[in-house]
Design a protein that fits this description.
The complex is a heterodimer of chains A (248) and B (431). Chain A is α/β, with parallel strands linked by helices and 248 residues long. Chain A has 9 helices and 10 strands. Chain A has a 6-stranded mixed β-sheet, sandwiched between helices. In chain A, strands 2-1-4-5 form a 4-stranded antiparallel β-sheet, covered by helices on one side. In chain A, a hairpin with a 2-residue loop joins strand 4 and strand 5. In chain A, helix 3 crosses helix 4 and helix 5 packs parallel to helix 6. Chain B has 431 residues and is mostly helical. Classes of the chains: A alpha/beta (248), B mainly alpha (431). Chain B: It is found in: Cell membrane.
Chain lengths: 248, 431
């Protein structure tokens, strides 16, 4: 069964001359760590926004854990999906605990159960000593880790991460990647976008390279490298398919 | 309910950490209403409590001069000045001093003014007697030149002030002329009818049968509180300050959109409307607290600054309802601005300028009644004027919910329309 299945997805924003997505089709199996890769403007963020129900597709089909993105399943999908946006989607003036308590309350959790869950996650991410510190006083790496915690408070079976390690130090990145592997090992699916292709190669069991709103190629990173004799790593494969032209 | 309460708590946590926001919401309005009440206290007192010096040159030394001086002095609003440095004032001196602006007003009573009035009264009585077939010849002046009491005004004096003084002097003249005429008639009647004496003469009583008395239109004591600086400025600028909540709300919403927390909220199952409702309830609550804080300042701080005490109406429930309706309209406006604009700077500039315009046309700065007709019509479209009208209905007319419900409905409906527009714009963003 697929955790995510996208079929013939089209999206044209109001007022835009060209569609952002032009018949994008891919699927990732349940329990995998999948990478959605592509140059700037390829349509990754639009695809993720559609998967999360934040943006409506112009046409096409999206299935999350077998559920279609229609009104009847929208809430169920939201419960199953956890999103780590590229931006630190937390209130900078509130402490980590205050932020997590608020978002936990929005999920319907409260009391000792929520408190215990927050403390458990803060500990897992090495933030227990900064629990009461305001987010704006956190380092970049600490903010990224807190951002991930807010997305997994409700234990989603599909975690979507948009460049989760952008701008963080080596230690924080290592911790985040380690966490993702562990989370995946518990049977959860992960969809991950990044421009760090070495990281994607080591983390992902399946990658889809998209460009100009279309799928270019999909497969296991090692297999994709193997299929192209002149390519030694995922970055070579990426450049092979998307070219060297600069993207704005 | 948990989402709603959690949002209220979160907004509270954000507000208490935002020192600038707290200052903008609570301290600045208090300073604003205090400064405005102090500044506008003098103009409001112009025709009520301030005593004016009136230079009076009485060249008549008769009954008219005495009556005008006593009449002006009896009201307590004027101080009669008829000499300077121990020397009697001359007409030329008075004219010069008023022209220089040292004094606002001067009255010159010409010599022979009383004589002229007496002569005129005698002439009328002689005429009446003659027509009634009686022979009477009270003394009259042969050359009955008309004399004028001259008034000099400071060139900068306001039109309304001039009109009021004109009216008062004219009344004194009429009163003296009437008194003298009646006196002559009474005197002649007594002469003809020996049974009428001073003690049983009822003519003066009959003539005073209809008097003039000002009474309150409602049941309270509002005549005393109308048009003082505190009574206008405290509610008016409080409403202005309540609407300034659009700045923190719009900033709060744009920040949520920019930092991604709005996105996170939308990703969570459940209606975003409940979260928005929590936010609205919090800010409406803040508006209401703001309103009552400022009313307390009007009641307890203003008197310490030698200003009148704010008098609130008798219907506390109606006051609360109006305050909440104003808060709802202001909060909705903040949400609309926060939705429409992309950056805090755009929202700040548009929000602040639009509120200043809405307040100016809505009668916050100066009452709508003194504006040109067209501006009054436009002014009645401002939500700030609806709020002020409703508060005035309660405070000045001792009104209740029956007086204010229309304005309350207008405020609530406007708030809901603004929310609907914000919802529509937000929904369009998904496309």
């Amino acid at each position: 069964m697929s955790s995510i299945a996208v079929k013939e997805l089209y999206k044209t924003y109001t007022g835009a001359e060209e569609p952002t997505l032009k018949g994008l089709t891919f699927s990732f199996r349940k329990g995998s760590i999948a990478g959605l890769l592509g140059p700037n403007g390829a349509g990754k963020t639009t695809t993720i926004s559609i998967l999360c129900g934040l943006v409506k597709a112009s046409s096409g089909e999206v299935l999350i854990n077998g559920l279609s993105q229609d009104a009847a399943h929208r809430e169920a999908i939201k419960q199953q999906i956890g999103v780590v946006p590229q931006r630190i989607a937390l209130y900078p003036q509130l402490s980590a605990v205050e932020n997590l308590t608020y978002f936990g309350n929005l999920y319907g959790y409260r009391g000792k159960g929520l408190k215990a869950r927050i403390m458990e996650l803060l500990e897992a991410f090495g933030l227990e000593k900064s629990a009461d510190k305001e987010i704006h006083k956190f380092s970049g790496g600490m903010k990224r880790r807190a951002n991930i915690i807010a997305a997994i408070l409700h234990q989603p079976s599909l975690l979507v991460l948009d460049e989760p390690t952008a701008g963080v130090d080596v230690q924080s990145r290592s911790m985040i990647l380690q966490f993702l592997r562990e989370y995946n090992s518990q049977g959860n699916s992960i969809l991950y976008t990044s421009h760090l292709l070495e990281e994607a190669q080591s983390l992902c069991s399946d990658v889809a390279i998209v460009d100009q709103g279309r799928l270019i190629v999909q497969g296991n990173p090692d297999q994709l490298i193997h299929d192209l004799p002149d390519c030694e790593n995922l970055e070579d494969v990426f450049l092979h398919y998307t070219g060297h032209a600069l993207r704005d | 309910m948990l989402r709603l309460l959690a949002t209220i708590r979160k907004e509270w946590q954000l507000l208490v950490r935002d020192k600038t926001g707290l200052t903008l919401l609570f301290l600045m309005p208090v300073v604003l209403i205090t400064v405005m009440a102090l500044i506008q206290d003098a103009p409001f007192k112009d025709y009520q409590e301030v005593k004016f010096d009136i230079l009076t040159v009485d060249n008549d030394h008769g009954r008219l001069g005495r009556h005008i001086r006593e009449g002006l002095a009896s009201g307590g609003q004027f101080r009669i000045i008829d000499s300077l440095d121990g020397k009697p004032l001359t007409a030329e001196q008075a004219r010069q001093l008023v022209n220089e602006g040292t004094y606002k007003i001067s009255i010159i009573i010409p010599a022979g003014a009383t004589g002229n009035i007496v002569s005129n009264a005698n002439r009328i009585v002689n005429d009446i007697s003659h027509r009634m077939g009686m022979s009477l010849a009270l003394p009259v002046k042969q050359n009955a030149d008309s004399l004028d009491v001259t008034i000099y005004f400071d060139p900068a004096a306001k039109k309304a002030f001039k009109g009021a003084i004109h009216q008062a002097i004219d009344n004194f003249l009429t009163q003296v002329e009437t008194d003298m005429l009646l006196g002559r008639i009474r005197q002649e009647l007594r002469r003809k009818d020996s049974s009428v004496t001073a003690s049983n003469d009822t003519l003066p009583i009959r003539l005073q049968a209809v008097g003039l008395k000002e009474e309150a239109t409602g049941t309270g004591k509002q005549i005393d509180v109308i048009s003082n600086s505190v009574q206008h400025n405290v509610p008016a600028w409080s409403i202005f300050a309540m609407f300034f909540i659009v700045i923190p709300i719009a900033g709060n919403m744009i920040r949520e959109r920019e930092d991604g927390s709005l996105l996170r909220m939308k990703l969570i199952p459940g209606s975003y409307l409940e979260i928005l409702l929590g936010k609205m309830l919090f800010f409406v609550g803040i508006c209401v607290v703001q309103f009552y804080c400022m009313m307390l300042v009007g009641m307890y701080i203003m008197p310490l600054l030698d200003l009148p005490k704010l008098v609130m109406g008798r219907d506390a429930g109606a006051t609360f309802l109006v305050a909440a309706a104003i808060g709802l309209a202001a909060t909705s406006y903040g949400i609309l601005i926060g939705t429409l604009f992309k950056t805090p700077n755009q929202a700040l500039n548009f929000g602040a300028i639009s509120i200043v315009i809405l307040s100016a046309i809505g009668g916050i700065w100066i009452p709508l009644e003194v504006m040109p007709q067209k501006m009054q019509a436009i002014g009645h479209l401002s939500p700030l004027s609806w709020g002020l009208d409703a508060i005035n209905d309660i405070y000045l007319r001792n009104g209740n919910i029956a007086y204010v419900w229309k304005n309350v409905v207008l405020l609530i409906v406007t708030g809901l329309v603004m929310l609907a527009v914000a919802g529509y714009v937000e929904k369009r963003r998904m496309n």
